[in-house]
């Protein structure tokens, strides 16, 4: 289990030792709907079957109750999935209606913690694109993250998450300063995958980068895919790539125009468009050789700016 070096360790037992391990891939933000200290929240967790990994009071005091590689039960379906991945949760002090903003001290500690989780566990610097997608989010973002629906962490804090906290995490983790006053500033997509993929001649193959979903709508994007093929690729091999839209289950595909190249080495494919709400953007490739031989894809990179719409 992992313990944050700038949080007060307030280990909750028997949960800390008794609950199963997770591989943390998400951070989910909550409001507790009470103006509690981290000590009061610890007492509350002792009286319920629920708990969060972290608690944060108005003054910026951060407590940690469960190690980040152990399941904590605050996010319903995101607590621990069948593949062992799970979310790190933080409950934050608020008024009783969860309608107030995070204080400046809370914002600073949330940014610091989000950056630490990226560095410690490799949580990608993006807002989660689906309930299981690695990244950062807030409790009400996906219905799978609550048992019966929730407005947590409240409208004001959702706006803070999008406008201040998440850009601050990205800036802290990358050493850059975000221009928070610019609402048109894009987020950046930057994913890669070095797992070799053998491509059968003439067969379209969907590619995963971090996963198979490039973007989840509603979103505007300008995305570049770079593929590297082995030197052994037939010189006359036809390399085709195309972006395509599906529903959220990966069905009902609608493809964009196919771009064609030839032979080994690097090939690039670009798409600039809007992804509608309820649709996912994906990418697939096809290599066709004169002799029917397969082609080895060595590396793939996905990059480009995107905006919420």
UniProtKB/TrEMBL annotation:
Biological source species: Streptomyces pacificus
Domain N-acetylmuramoyl-L-alanine amidase as annotated: residue spans: 27-154
Domain of life (superkingdom): Bacteria
Annotated GO biological process: peptidoglycan catabolic process
Gene3D superfamilies found in the cross-reference section: Peptidoglycan recognition protein-like
Protein name (database record): N-acetylmuramoyl-L-alanine amidase
Family annotation (InterPro entries): Amidase/PGRP_sf (IPR036505), Amidase_domain (IPR002502)
An example Gene Ontology molecular-function term: N-acetylmuramoyl-L-alanine amidase activity
